[in-house]
Amino acid sequence: MTAAQVQQSSKFSPPAYQNDSGAIAPTKKREEEEEEEEEIDYSVTDKLIEDRDYYDNASAAAPIVSKDGNFEFSLMDTIKRPDVLCPSVMFESCIFARSNRALLRTPEEDPANVGESWGDYINCTSIGYSLMAAFTYSIGNIVWRTRRRNTIRRRYQIEGNCFKDCAATTFCSPCALAQEDHEIKAREQEIYASDFKQGQQQLAFENMV
Questions:
Q1: Is residue 2 pLDDT above 90, yes or no?
Q2: 92, 142, 163, 173: which sits with the fewest CB atoms below 10 Å from its CB?
Q3: Taking a C-beta distance cutoff of 8 angstroms, is the pair 162, 135 a contact?
C-alpha cells in the first residue's frame, strides 16, 4: 500500500462497533438506549409496588390458619376468648350480618375493612335474622345458620357434615357463631393477602416482558 493510499484511508473513521482489540463494543447511542430501558423498568416496578409497605404489613399480620381440615377455634376454645364470644352472645344478629358480609366480599375488597361501618352490622341480613327468630321461634335461624355453616366448611375445606352443623347451631349457637366469625375473618384475610401478592407479581411480569 502506497503512502497516498494510507493517508486516504486514515481520513475515514473506524467502524462503529470495532475497537483496537477487535472486540465488539456498543456505541454511545446503544448505551443510552439501554440506560433508558433500565430506567423505564425501574419506574414501572416502583409504580406497581408503590404500596408494597402495605402488602408487607398485611402479610405479616395475616393470621396463621390451620390447614388440617379443622376450625382454628373449637367450640370450647371460644369460651376462653371473651372478646370473641361476648359479641356473639349480646349482638347475635349483628355479628351474623358482619360475618356474612365478609364471606360474600368481592375479591378486590380488603376483609380488614369489613366491620368499620354500621352498615356491615345493621342491614337486611341482621333485620331478617331478627324477624325470623321472632316469627319462627328461631327454627328458621337454625336452618339458615346450618346452611351457611355448611357453605363455610366447603369454602375452606373443613371437615364435617350437615348433622354436626345443625347440632352446633342448635345447642351451641353463640359458640358456633363466634367460631364462624373468627374463621371467616382469618381465612379471608389470608386469601386476600395471597391474591394481592399474586396480582402484583403478575402485573410486574406483564409490564416487564
A1: no
A2: 163
A3: no
